[in-house]
Amino acid sequence: MTAPALGFLVLMSLACAPGQLPRSSVRAANPGRAILLDGGDLLKGNPAFPTGTRFLRIIATNDFHGALEPRPDANGIRRGGAAYVAAAIDRARKECEPRCETLLVDAGDLFQGTAASNLSYGRPVVEYYNRMGYAASALGNHEFDWGTDTLRARMRQAKFGIFGANVRYTDGHDVKWIPNDTIVKRGATKIGIIGVSTVTTPTTTRAANVVGLRFDDPAPIVDSIGTALRKRGANFVVVIAHAGASCGIDGATECGGEIIDFARKLTTKVDVVISGHTHTLVNTEVKGIPILQARSSGRAIDVLDLPLRADSKLHVRHDVRELAVDTIQPVPAIDSIVSRAVARVSSLVNRHVVTIPVTLARQGSQYHLGNLIADAQRWAGKGDVAIMNNGGIRTDLRAGEATYGSLFEIQPFGNTLYSLTMRGAQLRGLLEAMLAKKAVDDHVSGLRIRYDPLRPAGSRLVSVTTADGSPLSDTKTYNVIVNDFLATGGEGYNLGGRATASRPLNIVDLDALIDYIMSLPSPITAPTEIRIAPVLR
Ligand SMILES: [Zn+2]
Q1: Which pLDDT tens digit goes with each residue over 456-467?
Q2: Which superfamily, per CATH, for 55-342?
Q3: 65 alpha carbon – ligand 1 mean position (Å)
Q4: Ligand 1 centroid to residue 16 C-alpha, Å
Q5: pLDDT at 12 over 80
Q6: Residue 377: helix, strand or coil by DSSP?
Q7: For the chain: N or C, fewer Cβ within 10 A?
Q8: What is the whole-number distance in angstroms between the Cα of residue 409 and the centre of ligand 1?
Q9: In terms of pTM, does the model score above 0.85?
């Protein structure tokens, strides 16, 4: 295989790339509950089944995004990594034996997101999934990113089906090479599995990759196939859906989005919905149907227990288990798949990008590297303003040669950019929220902000000047570029609630940074001004 040029990576869309964890959700998702073995009381907080109850344990993942190696989250906690996810899955399997049958499924977006996966077009991810014994996966929008030929090659490599029941040719005919459903047997139990893709697929992968295809409303399709599967003897119907939701911090309340709407529309019985695509924590129920999503990039797994007795009145138990690598030992066989994949990309990771004359350190609240990254995002997103959270800037930009790998370590999350449409008054409210913290924890581009930290929170702004030197106008409309972490609620800024409109740009933050610094005259001069400054009095 020929390694694609750097430009290939830069151009790839990555609409639902791995995001940063909101800090508060790490606190809420107690790592003590995390992945720790808990043999007797399998799912704390859920009712225990009576002794002797046999059940089907469904273990599920979603949005792995090629995250073969563990990565630090926004709190610096190393999470995910195939060998560790494998250990968590094995543990979830073993802890319920012999009372359970187990089924391992995924809700899509397997390959796209890291050099180690991307430069092998997802091969090592399928190798890992094969080894783990996945029964099925949903067809994620990013499965199309390298074109249908590559997708079909991965489908041939996979020992499991990759299902998209709502994918049709534009003339309405079913796409034969994309399977819709399957029945798998576990002991005497037959489990019908239906996979569906997000209806937003055409706008979340490059349009050229899905020409001629359409993505229909999955609810009536699932109703119809589910009925057929039960007629064929399925005891359970499981939907694996690359379609998501956003919930409150507990993952259970205030849920809304595509998969919630889907479940509400169903008219036939579905036992479980495994969700993906939004990279969120979802652990809720709609009309009695459990809906789960385990964040992304192997940072969590879904575990769900269905009693096997057909007449059982027992309630289904379900949980999303957080996965921090410190709590588990990696599985050696998977570790070796990862090591080989990582070794193959070392030449890319070592690729020269630019030379940096002076180290740009992360230091204090406002620093030059933060300005540079905010500028890169405003430039890439063609915005009036950009806002970058400091928590997403992971290390210094050191003087000397900047390689793809060293830049990757600065912005390792693969966050994607959003363009938010905000009136000046809405933007002013956002800035007040940023200034209400104990310390300013963001950088801006396209704004100069002066504030009085001694005033009450909510009224600290003294002056806001835009890029052309004019004051921020409450009635004017601005395009504000942020990453998906902020756009989807990160830092508690409620950007979704503040903005008039929100549009994903399919630009990875690292690509924006690399493209931007390569466009600058050499030697690169860092933007040194303090853009968010307190007034002295
Ligand atoms: Zn997706």
Answers
A1: 999 999 999 999
A2: Metallo-dependent phosphatases (3.60.21.10)
A3: 9
A4: 5
A5: no
A6: helix
A7: C
A8: 23
A9: no
